[in-house]
Design brief:
single chain; about 350 residues; alpha+beta; 60s Ribosomal Protein L30, Chain: A; Phosphoribosyl-aminoimidazole Synthetase, Chain A, domain 2; globular
């Protein structure tokens, strides 16, 4: 029997197993399951709603806060405002009220920050878990006909990245492995790395990009990092892509943490950054709009015909093919015993 690697289920298995077992057809489902499509779009009468679900499995300290923002990000990439949040909180044996209170207070704070209502959920203690897990679910609203997908990019679109690579992973590692990292990093760098949690939302990134116009597709790179996110957007749009690694911003904090641990920032959890496929005529306008909102943004690549492949071009001219799998660097910390 084949055993899956840690991380996302392989793409070929999704196609062979998951996508062949989707229940009954619904004419109201405008966007359903697909590679790189992280949120469904459903027509409900005159209303269009967007729904997404994501677990938090790679963090310890801030899983409630992360769950709200990670699920809200998926909804926002459809052009929708997140409105209602649900979750299942699964605790390991030995957990008490203090653990649950900490998680729910984080959820409450994140929802207040985004203007989101906690509409329901489930909680339980179960055996054979090492750490708490949350599976979140977010619902949002978007004007009919105004939603965006990951599959709408066309050849020639410019690829814009907001903020920087590896934001979420850096914050998690700096927080959950503080004791180990502080022996090697200046505490000022470590504290700044921990504060990257505050940059994980891309709701305003998405709204500002849409206001500028010319957006063909959006996708937020999460597990597998920026490289996985770029591949997923290209795969969803059935296109090739060129990513210029020299143009990808990496914060000093991310660089320091990744160098210390010997990991690749482009393969590290990247919630907090948004990929926007923009018409060439609107790319500068989108970047300018984001910058005026105080959101760093830069062009990092372009979408091309599928026949040209998917590749990463380095500053020295070397080229690396971009293809799955993309195991996230965060899981290497489990093998090292970090964050426990």
């Amino acid at each position: 029997m084949r055993v899956f690697p840690v991380g996302k289920i392989p793409v070929q298995v999704l196609r062979r197993v998951i996508f062949r077992n989707l229940g009954v057809h619904s004419d109201s489902l405008l966007v359903g399951p697909g590679i790189g499509e992280d949120a469904a779009v459903v027509r409900m009468g005159r209303t269009t709603i967007v729904l997404s679900t994501d677990p938090i499995t790679g963090a310890l300290a801030n899983i409630g806060w992360l769950s709200v923002h990670v699920n809200a990000n998926d909804v926002a990439t459809r052009g929708a405002r997140p409105r209602w949040y649900f979750c299942s909180v699964i605790l390991p044996e030995g957990s008490g009220e203090a653990v649950l209170r900490k998680i729910t207070r984080q959820i409450d704070a994140a929802c207040i920050e985004l203007g989101v209502t906690v509409a329901g959920g489930h909680s339980e203690v179960t055996p054979m878990l090492e750490r708490p897990l949350i599976a979140g679910f977010m619902v949002g609203e978007v004007r009919s006909g105004r939603y965006v997908t990951s599959s709408g990019a066309v050849p020639g679109d410019r690829l814009i990245l907001t903020k920087s690579a590896g934001i979420e992973g850096t914050a998690i590692l700096a927080t959950d492995y503080e004791e180990g990292l502080k022996r090697h990093l200046d505490m000022r760098i470590l504290r700044r790395a921990q504060r990257l949690y505050k940059k994980i939302s891309v709701v305003e990134d998405a709204m500002a990009s849409l206001e500028a116009g010319g957006v063909d597709a959006m996708h937020d790179p999460t597990e597998g990092g920026l490289l996985c996110g770029v591949w997923e957007l290209a795969e969803a749009s059935k296109l090739g892509v060129v990513l210029y690694s020299k143009d990808v911003p990496v914060s000093p904090e991310t660089d320091a943490v990744c160098r210390c641990l010997g990991i690749d920032p482009l393969r590290l959890l990247s919630s907090g950054s948004l990929l926007v496929a923009a018409k060439p005529s609107h790319s500068r306008k989108i970047v300018s709009r984001l910058l005026r909102r105080g959101i760093p943004a830069v062009e990092v690549g372009e979408l091309v015909s599928r026949k040209y492949g998917r590749r990463v071009e380095a500053e020295d001219g070397s080229v690396v093919e971009l293809r799955p799998p993309f195991p996230d660097e965060i899981y290497r910390s489990w093998k090292w015993g970090l964050g426990k």
